[in-house]
Amino acid sequence: MEERSKNSRTVIIALILLIIFVLILILFLYLVRRPAFFGSFAQSENFTSEPTDSEVITPQSVSFDNSYLFASPLRAAAKVERIRITAYILDGQGMGVSGKQVILGNGNTSLQIYPISPVTDDSGRATFDVSSTEAGLFTIEASVGSKKLSQKVTVSFN
Known about the structure:
This protein is α+β, with helices and mostly antiparallel strands. The chain has 2 domains: 38 residues; 90 residues, Immunoglobulins (Immunoglobulin-like, Sandwich). Helices cover 23% and strands 30% of the residues. It is built from 2 helices and 9 strands, in the order H-H-E-E-E-E-E-E-E-E-E. The strands form 2 sheets. Strands 2, 4, 7, 8 and 9 form a 5-stranded mixed β-sheet that branches. The N and C termini lie far apart (85 Å).
């Protein structure tokens, strides 16, 4: 009986040591894969204090291919309900561009556009409501400056 308890105690101690070893190994692998941990202390012989192209912060420019429109709901009652149109103006890296005036339109006089926040916020979002005096399918475009976004949104009033 005493020998059996010694064996089980030995097995438990071995399991605890194994678990500790695995946790240390996981921590070590995590720290090695983080470049900021070791990379911040390392310097090469070719070190210069001038920023590289990737470190230079440039003003945000609008990517008309990345920017998009979103409508909710897609269908509403004519003369009664409004549809919320949200434009997301993004740069080439998918980040929002703030302070841009967005203009919504489709050239149809039966479509009324109500600017809620036509200038983009920090996330690149501009918001509008639209309603129609007539039933129909309407394709809505957005532009920033004189250039139109690539994407359009189609809504329906019935």
